[in-house]
Every structure is written in structure tokens, then in C-alpha cells.
């Protein structure tokens, strides 16, 4: 049996790392998010350095989670990299109902914010995010018992549709991102699926995207798009 060997240990985040993903079509470049609220990019060919492409601009506090773990109020807990464009990465914060999309070519501020408050009607946290395998659509699952599909195909265009605005529908909610700069705000999903219990995880059918998978409670539902 082959046994893998650790090449090196990277210490870049100030606190725990919660998620890590390789960039689309790259075997060398990967990104991570963690309890310090930062998103960092690494290159296996040059492990001495990392690049911070997003981090909070305000002071943070520490909260005790239901599971007993300590979360920074700025913590980023999930990361998903676009399967279509290697420049785009999506992340969610702890107990927040927004998704922020970062363009690695323009670090520091989101290019898109997905407002999961749905116009201020929903305060439930988002638990999981996954990019579609063939397009820039993003699937989210949250404590509101819903799996939602968001259209982010206009990332490189100016917002010109009814579902995209330049200001948050609920400024108090979106402001929790702590950054002051939101980019384009999308506050209306293009598809929704509802379960009886909270949605803890979501996924797409690999290489096709015609089905989505939804984990809720003790069950898994395969949903045809």
C-alpha cells in the first residue's frame, strides 16, 4: 500500500482553516478560508508565500457555536471555486445568509453578493455552496430548509436584470459582510426547492448538472432540474 508523505505544512491563517479547494483547471493553485475571516491563495510551486484576496476590515469577536467550537464573528466557513472560470471563488460566513463571490483579479471586495435574505424576509444561515459543473450558477442550502439556485452568469457584465441590484434589499443583513463594498447584489434566485428540515449540504451531478443533491435531516434527495 502506498503511503503519502507530507511535503510541507503551511502556516498562513491566524486561526483555524475551515475549507480548502483547488482552482479550476489547476494542479498547483488552491485557496483556503478560515476562522480569521480571510481568503488566501497558495501556489505549490512557491510555498513560501500566500496571497490574501479577501479579509474583513473590522474588528471581530468570538462566539461559542452549538457544537462547542469557538467561531470568530468574521469567520469564513465554506469555499467553492467556479468550474467555468478559474478567477471566481464563492464563500459564506458563519451564521450569515449571504454568499460573496471574489474575483482573484480584483482582490479585496466582492464582485457579487448573493443576498439570501430574499428582500429582508429570511434570516436563516446558509450552510453549503456549490458551483454548477458547466456554468456560473451557484447552488446554496440553508437553515430555511431551501436549496436555491442563483444565476451568476453575468459576473463579467453590468447588472441589468430585475434580479440584480446595486444596493442590498436589506442593508442591515448584507452589511454583516463587514466590508462596506458589495459589488453587484443579486437578491432573487432562479430556482428553489424546499425540504421539511434544514438543508445541511448540496451538490450537483458531476459533469452534467441536470440533477442536484440535497441533504436534509437524515435524508438525501436527488432533484431533477
UniProtKB/TrEMBL annotation:
Family matches, as Gene3D superfamilies: YVTN repeat-like/Quinoprotein amine dehydrogenase (2.130.10.10)
SMART domains associated with the record: WD40
PROSITE patterns, per the entry: WD_REPEATS_2
PANTHER family per UniProt: WD REPEAT CONTAINING PROTEIN
UniProt xrefs under Pfam families: WD40 (PF00400)
Name listed for the protein in its UniProt record: Uncharacterized protein
Source organism, top-level taxon: Eukaryota
WD repeats: 10-52, 119-151
UniProt entry keywords in alphabetical sequence: Repeat, WD repeat
Amino acid at each position: 500500500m502506498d503511503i503519502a508523505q507530507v511535503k510541507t505544512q503551511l502556516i498562513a491563517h491566524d486561526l483555524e482553516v475551515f475549507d480548502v479547494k483547488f482552482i479550476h483547471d489547476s494542479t498547483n493553485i488552491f485557496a483556503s478560508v478560515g476562522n480569521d475571516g480571510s481568503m488566501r491563495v497558495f501556489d505549490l510551486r512557491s510555498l513560501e508565500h500566500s496571497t490574501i484576496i479577501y479579509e474583513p476590515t473590522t474588528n471581530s469577536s468570538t462566539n461559542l457555536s452549538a457544537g462547542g467550537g469557538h467561531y470568530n464573528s468574521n469567520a469564513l466557513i465554506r469555499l467553492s471555486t467556479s468550474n467555468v472560470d478559474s478567477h471566481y471563488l464563492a464563500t459564506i460566513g458563519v451564521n450569515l445568509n449571504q454568499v460573496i463571490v471574489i474575483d482573484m483579479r480584483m482582490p479585496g471586495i466582492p464582485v457579487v453578493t448573493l443576498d439570501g435574505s430574499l428582500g429582508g424576509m429570511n434570516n436563516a444561515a446558509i450552510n453549503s455552496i456549490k458551483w454548477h459543473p458547466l456554468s456560473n450558477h451557484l447552488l446554496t442550502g440553508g437553515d430555511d430548509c431551501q436549496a436555491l439556485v442563483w444565476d451568476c452568469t453575468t459576473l463579467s457584465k453590468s447588472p441589468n436584470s430585475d434580479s440584480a441590484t446595486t444596493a442590498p434589499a436589506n442593508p442591515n443583513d448584507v452589511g454583516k459582510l463587514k466590508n462596506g463594498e458589495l459589488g453587484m447584489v443579486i437578491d432573487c434566485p432562479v430556482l428553489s426547492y424546499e425540504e421539511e428540515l434544514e438543508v445541511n449540504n448540496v451538490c450537483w451531478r458531476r459533469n452534467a448538472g441536470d440533477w442536484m443533491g440535497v441533504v436534509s435531516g437524515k435524508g438525501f434527495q436527488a432533484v431533477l432540474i
